[in-house]
UniProtKB/TrEMBL annotation:
Keywords: FAD, Flavoprotein, Oxidoreductase. It comes from the Bacteria. It is an enzyme of class 1 (oxidoreductase). Belongs to the acyl-CoA dehydrogenase family. This is Cyclohex-1-ene-1-carbonyl-CoA dehydrogenase. Its cofactor is FAD.
Amino acid sequence: MDFKLTEEHLMIQQAARDFAQTELLPGVIERDETQTFPTEQIKKMGELGFLGMMVDPKYGGSGLDTISYVLAMEEISKIDASASVVMSVNNSLVCWGLQTFGTEEQKQKYLTRLATGEIIGAFCLSEPEAGSDATSQKTTAIDKGDHYLLNGTKNWITNGNTADVYLVIAQTDVEKKHKGINALIIEKGMPGFEIGAKEQKLGIRGSDTHSLMFTDVKVPKENRIGEDGFGFKFAMKTLSGGRIGIASQALGIASGAYELALKYSKERKAFGTEICNHQAIAFKLADMAVSIEAARHLCIKAAWDKDNHNNYDISGAMAKLYASQVAMDTTIEAVQIHGGNGYVKEYHVERLMRDAKITQIYEGTSEIQKIVISRSIISQ
Ligand code: CAA
Ligand code: FAD
């Protein structure tokens, strides 16, 4: 057992840290306030290889391991969780899904451009009546011989307007339930595909969340991912890795808030001393440090499982469940440590607190992670 990061890991961590400080920090408050997508920053992230980190270099990716991805996600999320959700969806849902289950033609046509950030992807599973209950798909993809006819609505889709390529989950055969679901590649601009209004959100306000409407969209058969009926398994397998990305996002939000709170507590004076010298504040910092370290271990362990071809469904779910709770607890306490300044935008912690909440909701709510974990431990 070796807890030491490699030279390469440390380099990637530093590169992500530098990028976040120099490119993401300027303007992050304004982007949050005005719900502005970080277009230029995402372009640069693509150029630096952060959008296709685990993709084979022969398809334009960086060819790195999942641990590198966790380290980079933490650093980017410390500063801008809106940028890191774009990174997470593109890397672990879209690129990983296509690299692992796509045909060679699909990889050449889409993955090569997604991995470099030339285009951005979206992953479309949730619907108005199928969020946690993801097998209850109402969007239909009816088999018409050489194509599918796609009809329905997807909700809350990250990169909804920014994406060019959408992986859409839809029901082909209702009788077969989840075994009759397919995953299809949809391109922006296909006739019958419309993008709904942008959601007005509590947090990750720089990210671009929309509903999508499909009316008789003709999708060529070659755009199906995997065998007929593989769509639900595709979604579940892809989300198992996605949850490691969101766990790392939560970790980054927590460690970003902790670093700010620690610094502030050493500068701010009350009752003749720096507030970190008051035990009530010092103990909060201790609790934060311990839980962040534990969350980091869970994230790295899940990534290590993935890199070593172990099952990571459960370690990923545990990492997400725990790290998202740590993000919530830590950001609330970081605001508290900042006192009144914590409640105003320029100190960043109120944004981190608002951003933390989503990590308990998307890519499977905390209750869903508990279902996944408890089913596994009970069945052993
Ligand atoms: N890998 C492979 N297959 C899996 C799997 C996994 N991790 N998890 C489940 N399956 C398979 C099961 O084996 C089963 O197939 P078989 O019948 O062939 O064995 C099938 O899927 C159905 O599984 P269940 O019987 O367990 O289904 P269920 O309805 O009881 O529960 C669930 C499934 C785990 C609750 C699932 O619906 C779920 O994960 N819900 C949450 C949805 C979610 O995470 N949405 C995220 C949307 S993307 C997003 O949010 C992105 C973003 O914000 C940035
Ligand atoms: P519901 O399923 O209606 O759940 C409501 C509450 O009931 C939750 O607390 C839930 O945990 C609980 N609950 C439900 N079932 C159970 C149960 N069996 N046991 C115990 N408790 C239960 N989806 C995508 O497909 N792609 C995206 O890119 C995407 N991005 C998103 C971005 C944002 C900003 C948001 C807000 C959502 C996004 N989503 C995306 C959707 C997200 O994955 C869903 O919101 C999430 O899975 C929960 O589904 P729901 O909102 O329908 O809640």
